[in-house]
Amino acid sequence: MNKARVSIRRKLIFATLAPLCAAIILCWMIGAVLITDRIFSQAQKKVIGDLNSARKVYLDEISHLAGIVKVAGLSPEMSASLEAGRFAALERVLQQLLQSEQLSFLNVIDADGVVRYRAANPQVKGDLLDKDPLVAKALQGETAGGSQLYTSERLGREHTAFAKGVATTIRITPHSRPTSRMAEERGLVLVAVAPLRAVDGTVVGALQAGLMLNGDSRLVDTITRIVFDKEEGGAATVFLGDVRIATSVRDTAGERATGTLMSGEVASAVLDNGERWSSRAFVLNDWNISAYEPISDPQGKVIGALYVGMSERPFLQMRTNLNLTFIGVLLFVALIGVTISTWISTRLAEPVRALAEGARRIAAGEHIPPIDVHTDDEIALLADEFNTMNREVSTLKRTLEQKVMERTFQLEDKNRELLNAQKELAKAERLAGLGLLAAGVAHEINNPLAIIRGNTELLQDEIPVEALEREEVEAIMVEVGRIERIVSNLRVFSKRETLLPHPFELERLLDGILNQIGHQIPLERYCIERSYSGCGIVVTGDEERLRQVFTNLILNGLQAMPEGGRLAVAAEEIEAGRLVSVTVSDNGSGIRPEHIEKLFTPFFTTKARGTGLGLAVSYGIVSDHGGEIRAASQEGQGATFTVLLPLMEDAAPDSSTVQAA
């Protein structure tokens, strides 16, 4: 009889596990294929989108060059100097434009296509460029730009530094085409040409600007920064032919892989056939998920390629982890199947039915006596454990309601914390978006502003000091300076800067600010209270950045009391020495309740000539230090600003790149 029970259990377990194992193997095979395809399909789609973004950055650089020469070409003095053949008056302006825009060359060309003046190489001129397609378009009255391939001889004419040689040493690369070349001596140049017109509108020449990409990592670094997150580890490259001339790809030594070659398979599709490439490609020394796009000159000839991509290793690791997880889940399910089959076989015994009935009665809330099983096997042990469980359930039922109430209160606290965190996250995302907008606005304003300042300075030099027009020109310079300060604040608000943390005395910093603030605002009508003398608090952070925060708060407090009043500055350690609290209080007119939530929003200000960036920048600086800034006020009773900063050494920020919020 015992033999029969064992046989039934084994048959039942086998009948359960056989289809389950088959299902596990089938599901694993299907799941592995689906996971692999989905991961790499999504990664490839992302790289294609990244290539589109990179192409836009590349074309925007050409558009930027076209904008420079187009705006500069509008100057009537330039066309007049070209017709007169005298460039001495414009030499400073052209040199300044060449340096400020970091151009590789800037040339003035007459109506016959003859170079009359080179800002980057003034000694070389007189060569004929009428066959250049971009120059030809400009001489016909059309601003043109694009990518061009320059020989080493032409590069030497364009810039004195290029005359010494700009050859890129070619490095042997796995999977590349065989080559006997030792170096690439040509240059890939972004060029823009705009017409110069006389007063009557006729084209008298052209202004040509160029930016050589060989060895210049600014463009590829910009693409990498815009397209990829730090965790993705992506890279971008500009190829001249199949040679990397500018890249953010790193070799095994951590250096830029300039001079390495494109994979032969990719070169055949992109360079020979002018097609886009989007697939796995061998890049330098590893397989990458890549996308390539050909770069063509104005005649449509493929002269290079633009690349973006990322290593496939993280995706392979992700696939492995997902497969392991999937296998683990399936094995866990199999284990459950074994347990269920064993339990089902055991239920065939009568004592198990009694246990099941007892479990049903307990679930119904009944109190049952202990179950007696008169056997010496595992069923008896199960009955003992069941009786123990019955006693524990009775005890747990008495404390269940209390535990539910405790967990409910804890859940409510967590919900409140989550709501607060969501508000802070929403504010951070809003400020980050405004930071990107501010960076773009500052960049677009700065170019025409530089031209306005340059032309105004030329006017100042031409107008005598005693002339009536001199006052108007000086007024223009004052307003230009004001715009430059606003643009500077926009840049501070938007761009990432490096903190330089070090320990410093908070008392010394606050005293220095209060002692120097009198140079900006007369302090005779104010009473300043200092409630921190002798505190001896040492803070670890960027002293100059925090000086900017406290100076801004103190100036705001004084400016809120135009007729005079009391300004209180206090500092103390709180929370058992983990934080320092610095408060700046005034007894001015206060802040309206509806303005409190908007104080740290960029461009919000209640001052007649304010920019609305001071408190927003201060908020970002304090946040970068791991701190918090708060504002409290009652209208008509003054305002109080509180800055909380961590005091512990491990809470101080390291020398990392941060962005004003």
Mean pLDDT: 80
CATH H-level homologous superfamily name of the largest domain: PAS domain
Number of strands: 21
CATH class placement of the largest domain: Alpha Beta
- The unreliable regions are 1-7, 650-661
Biggest sheet features = 5 strands, antiparallel
Spatial strand order of the main sheet: 2-1-7-6-3
- Tally of discrete structural domains: 3
Contiguous helical run count: 15
CATH architecture of the largest domain: 2-Layer Sandwich
Q: Which percent range fits the helix content?
A: 40-55%
- Kindly name the structural category: alpha+beta
**Which shape, going by the Cα principal axes?**
flat
Distance between the termini: 79 Å
Short structural summary:
The protein has 661 residues and is of the alpha+beta class. It is 50% helix and 20% strand.
Describe this structure in words.
The protein has 661 residues and is α+β, with helices and mostly antiparallel strands. The protein is 50% helix and 20% strand. It folds into 3 domains: 75-314, PAS domain (Beta-Lactamase, 2-Layer Sandwich), CATH 3.30.450.20; 384-494, Helix Hairpins, CATH 1.10.287; 497-659, Heat Shock Protein 90 (2-Layer Sandwich), CATH 3.30.565.10. It has 15 helices and 21 strands. A hairpin with a 5-residue loop joins strand 19 (628-633) and strand 20 (639-646). Residues 1-7 and 650-661 have low confidence and may be disordered.
